[in-house]
Each structure stands twice: as C-alpha cells, then as structure tokens.
Design goal:
Elements: E1 3-6, E2 8-11, E3 14-21, H1 39-62, H2 70-84, H3 86-89, H4 91-99, H5 103-119, H6 124-127, H7 130-145, E4 161-165, H8 170-177, E5 183-186, H9 194-202, E6 206-208, H10 213-216, E7 222-226, E8 231-234, H11 238-261
Parallel strand pairs: 3-4, 4-5, 5-6
Antiparallel strand pairs: 1-8, 2-6, 3-7, 7-8
C-alpha cells in the first residue's frame, strides 16, 4: 500500500531508493542505590565516562575526512562545550553524593532539568539546542553502560539506500555519509537543528520531523524522499515513481547548469560587468 508522510524539508533534492532502518539502542536508565563507601568510586566512574566521550569527540574532529563541511567541526566544538560545562560534568557528581544514586540516574536527572529550562526559551533556534544536550548525554550514558557510541548500519553498497532513523546527531550523519546513503529522514529534528544545517551543507536530500516514519516504514521498502516539498512517499505506484524519476533528472540537470554558470563571466547584454558580493563565514562556503 502506498502512502505519504509529511515533515520539514531541510535539504533539497530528490532521492529514490530502498529504506534502511537505523536501529538505535534504547537507553533504559534504571535507578539503584549506591552504598556510602562506594560513592567516591561511582563519581570516578562518571568522570571516566566524561573523559571517554571527550576523547571520542576530539577523535571525530581529528579524523574528519577531506571535504567535510566546516560546520561539522563547529558542532563538535559545541558538543565539547556542553560536555565540559559544569551543569553537565559537575552537577551529576553532586547528585551522586547527595542522593546516593548511580551515575546514570544522576545524569538523567540533570538532563531532564536542563531540557525543561530549554523548553522555556522563546527563540526557536536556541530552544532546539536541547537536542545537542540530549545527544551529548546519550554519548555519556553509552560510555557508562559500555555501549558503542554509534553502530554503523550494514547495507549493500550496490543498492540505493535511504537511511530512516528516529534521530541523528551531526557525528552520525558524517559517519553515514561515508556509507553512501542517498538521503536521510528522521522522526525528530527541525529546520534549525544542527543535523539539518549539516545536511544542507552536504547536499543530501533530507526530511525531518516525520514523527513516526521509523515505525511506519519497513526495511527494504521503496521510498521517495522529496527534499523540496518535505514529503516521503512509501511504496510509490508506477506513475508516481515515473514522475519523480523525471523530476529527479530535471533537478540534476538544473544543478549542472548552475555549476557551469559558476565559471561564466557575469555581465549584462550590453557588456556591463556585474560584481556579486556575498556575506559568508569562510571561503569554504563558496562551494
């Protein structure tokens, strides 16, 4: 049965392929009491997890492949700032000592408190930074639980795969970009999320805020990702598939025309040169 899901378009383009579901490990945080004589050891376990995640983020930045968008390093630096902030790396230590609880529970309590504060922010961009807090906390929780930070999804490289996930961090996107996925769709996210910004820089068709796409789409199902309209079509019928293949071809032709214009001298029909100026952050943004 064919159906469509509507979300927020964050990176233009059209992708046609088969769904590959990214199964994210569920982090169930349990609470248990820690004896008084073990509290210092529990604090040290928390500190080791913080240090491990700090090293992970620095290593991700160091190993960024050539052509990585400059935004990627900025987002990693932001995650490091969040990690090193006392509200995340210091407050849980106090909670462990005061409440006699395990590190995971103390960290989750602190995250919930921070998220509640972010929810009250009126500015939408700043409010969405709660996602960055959540992503950093999830990394620390995985370190505490002995789980890998990210599991690379296995898929056939000769198949046009489209990654379907509940949520993706910027680090996840860079990792999966190397796996040759043709598009990304997620249940979570927004137009100003860092994952969306990175998707636009990478030129990968992406739709976010689909809410229940991961639960509704099955592994291997044919899907169309319309990164301009913010629509995902699952099991498209032959007529719709043919129409979108034509749209996809037209999109690629338009992109090629624009690339050729980059080296064309800008001038009016009567021979007057036109200079184009742009306000950009770095020379790499010209690309």
């Amino acid at each position: 049965m064919s159906f469509s899901i509507h979300g927020i378009a964050v990176a233009q383009g059209i992708a046609i392929g088969r769904a590959h579901l990214f199964l994210q490990t569920s982090l169930e945080v349990t609470h248990y009491a820690v004896p008084q004589e073990r509290l210092e050891a529990e604090v040290q376990r928390f500190d080791r997890a913080i240090a491990a995640v700090r090293n992970e983020l620095r290593e991700l930045e160091r190993q960024a492949p050539p052509g990585t968008p400059p935004e990627f390093a900025a987002f990693l630096q932001l995650h490091l700032m969040i990690l090193n902030d006392d509200t995340l790396s210091g407050a849980p230590r106090v909670l462990i000592q005061q409440q006699g609880c395990n590190a995971e529970w103390a960290l989750k309590q602190q995250m919930d408190s921070l998220i509640e504060q972010f929810e009250k922010i009126e500015d939408s961009y700043l409010r969405e930074r709660k996602e960055d807090v959540t992503q950093v906390v999830e990394r620390v929780l995985k370190a505490l639980m002995g789980q890998p930070a990210t599991l690379v999804p296995e898929h056939k490289t000769d198949m046009d795969s489209i990654l379907v996930a509940h949520d993706l961090s910027p680090a996840d996107m860079m990792l999966f970009k190397q796996q040759s996925f043709h598009a990304f769709i997620t249940d979570m996210g927004g137009a100003t999320s860092h994952t969306a910004i990175l998707a636009r820089s990478m030129g990968i068709p992406s739709v976010v805020a689909l809410h229940r796409a991961w639960a509704m789409i099955r592994e291997g199902e044919p899907i169309i990702v319309d990164g301009m309209a913010g629509v995902v079509i699952v099991n498209p019928d032959p007529l719709v598939l043919t129409e979108y293949r034509l749209r996809q071809e037209q999109w690629h032709l338009e992109r090629q025309k624009l690339k050729r214009l980059r080296t064309t001298r800008a001038m009016t029909l009567d021979g007057t040169d036109i200079e184009l100026w742009a306000n950009i952050e770095s020379p790499d943004d010209v690309d």
